[in-house]
Amino acid sequence: MNIPYETRRRSLFSCLYSLRESLPGLLAMFFIALFSNNLAGNPNPLTLENLFRWLDAVIGPINHQPLFQILNSNFVWNPFLMGLVIGNVFGVPDCWKRGLSFIHILMPLGIIMLAPHFMFSHAEKAGLPLILAAFAVMLFTASLTMLLGRLLRMDDRHYATIAGALSTGDPHVVAILMPMLKSKGGQVINALGCVLLFGLVTSFLLPLLGHALNMDDKAFAVLSVFGVGNTGQTFNAAFGYSYEAGHWAHYVEPVRHALMPAGFLFVFFVMFIRARRYPHAENVMATKAHKTLPLFIVAFIVAWIAVQFHIVKEPAHLAIFELVKWDFSLAAAALGLSLPLREIAQWGLRGVVLAFASGLARLAVLVGCLLAAAHFRFPII
Amino acid sequence: MRHSHTTDEEGFNYMDNSGQEERDRDMVGIFAAVALMLLTVIVQRAGWL
Amino acid sequence: MNKRFVSGVAAVMFCLLFSVAPAAESPHGLAPAGDMPFIPDLGGLRRQSFKNQYGQRRDLSEAVLVRKSVVKNGEASVPAGGLCYISETEQDAAPFRRDPFFLLGEHAYLVDLAQSVRTVRDVTLKKGEKKPVDMAGYRLWFDYATDHYDLPYIQMALIAPSGHWPMEFSVSSKFPGIKDLPDRSRLEGDVEQLDEFFLDPAFEYGASRFEVKDHDFQKATFASLSYPVIEEATFSLSRPVALDLRQEEYRLYGAKRIYAFRENEGFRVRVTDFGGDKVLAEKVIRPVSSQGYKDDDKEKDSYSLTVPGEDMRIEIAVQPEYLRHSDFVPWSTEVPHDWKDGVLSLIVYRDLVTVKNGAPWPLDHRYIVGLEANLLTGKLQRLTLENAEPFTLDAERDAFDGPVKHSDVWNRPAFRLVADDIQGDRVRSYYLRDAFFQRTDNLSFTDKGRKNIDCFIGRTPTFVSILEDSFLNRLAMPDFGTEVQGSHFTSFPSVMPNMAFHAPDPTAPFGGLMRGFGREQVTNRRGERLTSSEGLVIRGSYVDWKNNRIVIPPAGLFYTSRNARNVRALNGETFYMLGRRAYIATFESTTFTRRNFDIDFWRVQPDASLHPIYWQDQPLGVNNKVLRFTESHLLDDRPMAQINVVKYSGNNFGAPFELAQGLSRENGDRYYLHDRFAEGATWIEPEFVGETYVRVKSFGTPAIQSVQYTYEKPVRALLAPGEEKPLGKNHTLKLLSFDERAGLATVELRRNDGSLTETRTLGPLNDETRAFLPQHQRVVNSLQFQFDEGKNKVLAEMDVKTPFEKGKAAFYTYVDLKKLESDTPFEGDPRFMVRPDVCGHCYQLNEVLLDNPDPIILDKEHPRFDGPRMADGKPQFSIVIDSFDGEMIHAWHIETNYRKRVFKSANLAFQPRNNIDVLMGVNGTIEGFLRASLMERSAWQEYWRTGAHPHPERGLDAWTALKFQ
Asked: Could you give the CA distance from residue C931 to residue A46 in angstroms, rounded to a whole number?
């Protein structure tokens, strides 16, 4: 019988269990990570990342971008995929499970360590008007997505995750929001799929729209960064339009990056306040389990503010980001193992409808703004 | 309901995270994150990076 | 009617052109299309560094080159030799050193070479021509001709069939040679301009020798060209098997016995069958050791035993135990000395492949093997495989297989060239696929398509020499905007105390031509057309992140103005001076000499930054030039040194000194280099040439003290005796008398207010003095009359072209003279120091530099720095920091003032940078920096095109990868 944690707790570190209990699970995560990503200090060449790179080279670039980058293969996606395959094909041995529970330590750990990645000063070069516009569009998308999600009667954790990922234009946000919103693994992956599908489709179609509207390269770059998002898909859209647009997309990308925390924190706080206001409503699930504001979010915000003062100098930031990759690789492995495929499917196709409805609305707003800017000769960058 | 992927024989569900256990896990995570970041910054400022 | 006439003429011309068009020229030694795509990385084309048996570094690389292809009528045709695989080592590969070499992606070892020297006689060619000199496809290139004392000297290069050439060499039959260099070891300090100008008719370069018989400015005839060629090379495709040698005993190698019996001169090695009854081969061989001469044809046979028909080659090596099955050498001295102790091993090379120069590739007869020698050492440097027959790609057959490679798994084509979308005269899609089925991006980068399928895939150093004609255009006029390479951020700002004699960061963005930095063709009085251009270089700048500022160290920002050659007096030559055309009036130079000093060999000094430390440099005067010992080789164990003169700008002087002592071709040495060197007015005479240091007995090179110039165009005055001519507003020139036969003219210059008058006899201008024109200042000064001082300075000079005409004497007059004096503040803007650079050959002005004597600090409060002010008081350029967060520079640009308008450059920190090093404008100085980093810059252009991130390279790796200067 499972002994309740409170009974076996001796100190803070009781959540690490004994080495004997946790080692198998830790090793499982470790080896999945080792064979998924080219992580710092990992000399193993037989990784999923390298396999994808080879496939990229065999298939050849699309709009000069590697295919798997367009499909958003990255350090979270690779170990997740491997975990998912292992979990679904072979199952998860019981002895791994204590170790796999470290995912709950790794998630806040990784989120806090992401703070040095979001430097506002990196976005300054784009100019205040663009930053403000991007910020407004982000909040608009998040709000609209949450609103539409409610109208579609979706689970609030599910639509909030989609809102976060879609508005920030970054699929990693689904993982960041997971412990914040207390969403289910299946919702997270379902949301990820929806956002990626939206990005994939629009990244190929957007250049057609751009040509139809005869858009300026810079304007199209802005449109692809804030309208498509998902880095690789942004570049697919922008380079699909023109080289110039591609280069400017690289230039504007840091703005999206710098604003990202504001996006997911916005979604979190909206859901958090909502859960506090309607503590007994049945359909309010997101963040409900949090009794108070989780400490790791406070820690993240403090760290985020602190790094704006260049406390973490550049190579140190790279070193920390290497640790973040390790951290999320391990966590994503555990997440992948936890999910039977049906759990992802169970959240249905409403997410796709939501992502497309909201994403297309955002595109329409952005196109309107950019055309207006062009009309009034307002310099975008 | 027993969950084959995440729950073991004893009924321990590794995707569950609540109560004191959650707070402890958060704290350990926060400590580790702050420690690692501090360590990196100190290492750099001391000239080893 | 006119139209009809024109079209008729055009039709006739067209017919003529095609009727006399020669058969397609061999692509050997020729460059691909200047705008061809370059893809630096494709997995199947390797680039890697290894160490050989003695721990010497060998940098290997492979590439595929397509040249001289044409797309027409839906077909892409490639001539024979147009598709070329190149495997190259930056150093060389020789037997008995276990030198690694790539064979179509497979790691191999060179085990044997058949070398010889080819001599071609009586080659005549015209300027600009790349003339084939032999059947293999070597070409002689007559690149450039210039003069001294009105006598020509020429610059040549011998281009290998692949397109590679190591250096350009200057030769002339019109001047005293190196053997005529007198003993000048008594000279020390600054001495006056010397009369002699040296240039040897023969260029000696180790295993090569090029001797010119006669030449003028347009044509040259070479008496002989000797250069090493490789007839045959044997490679081993597997790691050798090492067996401990036990004397008087046998070791088993598979089903064979290898006996070793000790004899006085080595070991008698006997190979038998398993039972030991049947002797397969037997020979006395000596243990190999590192002496270079042992790979000579006469010697090499006593160091190896090849077993006929058995794919075995046996050598005996002495080496430490840990090396027996490994290429792993824990340290590298870069000196090929033997291991002092260790065990004797029998080294058995297997999987042997022998290839012959000019013969088909053993696995694929559609390809011809080319073996190219290092012109200095005569050892193997390059292996090429070229298509023997021309081929075409079209809709039916859209791919052509590369040569079949050896593989442990499956011998298959090493690559495949595919052109799958050809429409009319344009190809819209073509690419290369390697042996692992990986492909490049579509090499037709734009929708317009290309008119040929030329390309260069991979990173062999041949890329740099093959693009000599077009690299400047490629870099200066990029199709995809100003490429900016993001910086690698380090924990330490790479602080430089002073950047004189240092090159800028090799990743510095190159802005190319920009309005405000002039570049134009100018014509001097003799009708010679010269390109005159100016630019800006920032070097050694860094972000001082501890203090939130950007620092440009002293000498870190310089304005440069330079012509295609030196700027000469008496010819009315012009140069740019801060956007305006300036006329040179006169100059003052000396010879800087030094004696009895040492130069240490320069090694890379790891300091975690991209600026190597040059503490071994030997200064030549103050802010003039430095000597740098940059390369050292052993040629049959005789040390050879390459010493460079480095200019103030950080660029090398065109001619490095290649020195070695005690070599003699008459005594049968394979190599020869001069034991002293002289080119133009610069000479070096070593006392001793060692591997890591050279003791110099005597050295001299020109130094320039000052030049005088004016912005007013010199005016020609034709005066009869007694006649006067106003010289500006305040002066008058009067001819008192002249003597046409003696070439003398006596003139008077006076202030109009009568307060000062001077008389001087100019000349003589006769055959004797003309022999020293236009370069010798003694003669130049004798023909010029400087008068008055300060801002009132004027000058009159004899017209050297037509001094006397219709009973009158001709003069050129200069008013409003300004002076540029070395190491003094610039008159127009004292924040900058004047550093004129001299031509190392000829004492003339080579380049005008204006640089900052004090550090320039840029931060949030001071985001702008104005460059030197032009005559109208406006800065010629300004540096503007747009976005800087104290750690990274996110946006900055350069502004120029040109014709009352302000022009802005692109954002030079499009990707975040940690310095503001930059190259703006295009002139010789900037060209030098670009050439040194051409391969890397081209690679970054490619990453820039697709938005990819380059491979991370940091610290010392970055230095060696970037490999500048």
From this structure: 38
Q: Which residues lie below 8 Å from residue C734, measured CB to CB, with a gap of 6+? A: C719, C722, C723, C724, C725, C747, C748, C749, C750
Return the C-alpha torsion angle C395, C397, C402, C404, nearest 10.
Answer: 160
pLDDT tens per residue, range C163-216: 999 999 999 999 999 999 999 999 999 999 999 999 999 999 999 999 999 999
Question: How far B48 CA sits from the closest chain A CA (Å)?
Answer: 10
Interface residue B47 vs chain C (CB under 8 A): yes
Neighbours of chain A (3+ CB pairs under 8 A): B, C
- Beta strands C510-512 and C918-920, pairing class: parallel
Q: C355-369, C615-629, C796-810: which has the minimum mean pLDDT?
A: C615-629
Contacts of C610 (CB under 8 A, 6+ apart): C494, C505, C506, C507, C958, C959, C962
Closest residue on chain B to C545 (Cα): B45
Residue A152: phi and psi, rounded to 5, are -80, 0
In which band, very low, low, confident or very high, does the pLDDT at C616 lie, cut at 50, 70 and 90?
confident
Cα separation, A45 vs C461, in Å, equals: 28
Alpha-carbon distance of A333 to A88, in angstroms, equals 13
Q: Which of C193, C21, C56 is nearest to C780 (CA)?
A: C193
Is there a cis peptide before residue C336, judged by omega within 30 degrees of 0? no
Alpha helix positions (H), chain B: 19-45
Q: For residue C933, which phi and psi values (nearest 5 degrees)?
A: -120, 25
Say what the pLDDT of residue C952 is.
46
Q: Check CB contact of B17 with chain C, cutoff 8 Å.
A: no
d(CA C237, CA C826): 64
What percentage of chain C carries pLDDT values higher than 90? Answer: 79
What is the number of alpha carbons within 13 Å of residue A301 lying toward its C-beta?
13
Split at pLDDT 50, 70, 90, the class of A189 is very high
Q: Give residues with Cβ within 8 angstroms of C72, minimum separation 6.
A: C425
Identify whether the C-beta of residue C274 lies closer than 8 Å to the C-beta of residue C258: no
Pairing of strands C38-39, C455-458: parallel
Mutation target to probe the A interface, by most A beta carbons within 10 A, among B24, B38, B48 is: B24
> What pLDDT is recorded for position C16?
41
Selection from A298, A271, A304 nearest residue A161 by Cα: A271
Taking only residues 340 to 359 of chain A, the set having a beta carbon closer than 8 angstroms to any beta carbon of chain B reads 340
Using one digit for the tens of pLDDT, what is the confidence trace for C871-889? 889 999 999 999 999 999 9
Calpha distance C56→C61 (Å, rounded) = 16
**C729: exposed, middle or buried (Cβ count in 10 Å: 0-12, 13-18, 19+):** exposed
Q: Look-up: residue for tokens 């030559």?
A: C573
- pLDDT at site C951: 56
Rg, chain B, Cα only = 18
Strand-by-strand arrangement of the C415-423 sheet: C399-401, C415-423, C426-434
Express each pLDDT in C141-168 by its tens digit.
Answer: 999 999 999 999 999 999 999 999 999 9
SS3 B42: helix
CB count in 10 Å sphere of residue C140: 23
Question: In chain A, at which residue ranges do the beta strands (DSSP E only) sit?
Answer: none
* A contacts of C43 (beta carbons < 8 Å): 54, 57
Residues of B with Cβ-Cβ distance to A107 under 8 angstroms: 29
Chain B residues with CB under 8 Å of A311 CB are 41
**Buried b / exposed e along C365-398 (16+ C-beta atoms within 10 A):** ebbbbbbbbbbbbbbbbbbbbbbeeebbbeeeeb
* Tokens, residue C184: 């000048």
Q: How far apart are CA C661 and CA C690, in angstroms?
A: 9
Question: Is the model's pTM score more than 0.95?
Answer: no
Instruction: Report, as an integer, the average pLDDT of C381-401.
Output: 97
* Bridge partners (DSSP) listed for residue C512: C920
